[in-house]
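Hi all, posting the design record for the shared folder.

TITLE: backbone redesign
STEP: 1 of 1
STRUCTURE INPUT:
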């Protein structure tokens, strides 16, 4: 540190004009060279640096402005997309509700239709059973009547002789004649 202060102190007085040489004190010469270079740079580079900084500032401001415009456009598009999404969600909910109610209505109609069909089938079954019962009863009646008739004819044939047979026929003809008159 003492060398540095000595070099600044020695700057106050110059050696005599006859002696010319190199200053080997690195700290002293570097500080002087640096201050000269900085002074020249500040003096001559001030305008160039100022222009460069102004251009850079304008580019940054333009970029910020463009970014703000893009941000505004993006926000507007986002709001439009959100509005569209809400609209689509409402339509989807409406379709879902309509679909569910349509499904319920179709289910109800199907159940009613099936119930009516089952009732009709039950009625047809009952009618068929009744018809078959009546047919079976009629067949049994016919057989019983035929057997009874055959039995009666057999009994009459064995019990009746010709004379009794003729009297019965005349009596029946007389009864039939009295009914028709």
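Okay, here is what came back for every position:
SEQUENCE:
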């Amino acid at each position: 540190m003492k060398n540095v202060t000595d070099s600044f102190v020695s700057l106050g007085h110059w050696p005599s004009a006859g002696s010319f040489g190199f200053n080997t004190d690195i700290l002293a010469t570097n500080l002087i060279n640096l201050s000269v270079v900085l002074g020249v740079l500040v003096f001559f580079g001030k305008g160039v640096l100022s222009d460069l900084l102004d251009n850079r500032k304008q580019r940054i401001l333009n970029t910020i402005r463009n970014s703000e415009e893009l941000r505004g456009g993006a926000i507007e598009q986002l709001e439009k997309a959100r509005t569209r999404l809400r609209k689509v969600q409402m339509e989807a909910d409406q379709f879902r509700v309509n679909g569910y109610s349509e499904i319920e209505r179709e289910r109800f109609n199907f159940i009613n239709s099936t119930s009516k069909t089952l009732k009709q089938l039950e009625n047809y079954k009952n009618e068929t059973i009744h018809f078959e019962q009546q047919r079976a009863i009629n067949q049994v009646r016919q057989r019983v009547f035929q057997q009874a008739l055959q039995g009666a004819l057999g009994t009459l044939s064995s019990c009746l002789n010709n004379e009794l047979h003729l009297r019965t026929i005349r009596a029946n003809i007389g009864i039939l004649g009295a009914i028709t008159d």
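COMMENT: The longest helix spans residues 26-159.
Let me know if anyone wants the other runs.
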